[in-house]
Automatic annotation (TrEMBL):
It catalyses: RX + glutathione = an S-substituted glutathione + a halide anion + H(+). CDD domains: GST_C_Theta (cd03183), GST_N_Theta (cd03050). Its EC number is 2.5.1.18. It comes from the Eukaryota. This is glutathione transferase. The keyword Transferase applies. Pfam families: GST_N. One of its GO terms (biological process) is toxin catabolic process. Residues 1-82 form the GST N-terminal domain. Residues 89-226 form the GST C-terminal domain. Belongs to the GST superfamily. Theta family.
Amino acid sequence: MKLKVYADRMSQPSRAVIIFCKVNGIDFEEIKVELSKRQQLSAEFKEINPMGKVPAIVDGRLKLFESHAILIYLAGAFPGVADHWYPADVSRRAKIHSVLDWHHSNLRRGAASFVLNTVLAPALGLSLNPQAAAEAEKLLSTSLSIIESIWLKGNGRFLLGGFQPSIADLSLVCEIMQLELLSEEDRSRILGPHKKVQQWIQDTRNATRPHFDEAHNILHKVKTKLAVQLSVRANSEMESSIKRVLPSKM
């Protein structure tokens, strides 16, 4: 039975799983779960992941969620996956786990919260939260500095001094790619000081092309859509303001 991957490409972890499968020639069926329509909360999907989050996979009788667990499973369950993704060497694996564990409470919290409270919230029916965005930016900037000073140390171009990418590289880079949704000003302010991170992102992209670019095309489409919505909202607010002012001058 073919592997089923339940995903929304707007989800950073979903993209990581999809790219991993494609790069490694894993045959799978991608089943779209649209977060904007809250399909992840449906009773049908919760039979697969009771947490109501993507990605999730079904492989035969196995139902599995949490992207890092999925990537680890795929690396071991499917023949032909190169060792550099999740090395057989126990010490290398342990170091990869240390990066993945750090990711959840640092880079992911900072990046996801900043993007949500800067651009995405209105599209999800939520209000922007400038205070939350400011706090998230601090955590995000600190996380990028830690990646450069700790995780990217060594002779290789990838995390932990690797000469080829691991599942940690793919997971973290997909997270940072969510910043593509930001304005150029915000994105440059955050990523600009981190030249080493920028090069690492490019190296990971090059190592996983064309699948990396194909999986991330959605970000450019959504960014354009968000810009149009922002323009319409701004024009509407301006018209309302003019209507309030005009009667007072008549």
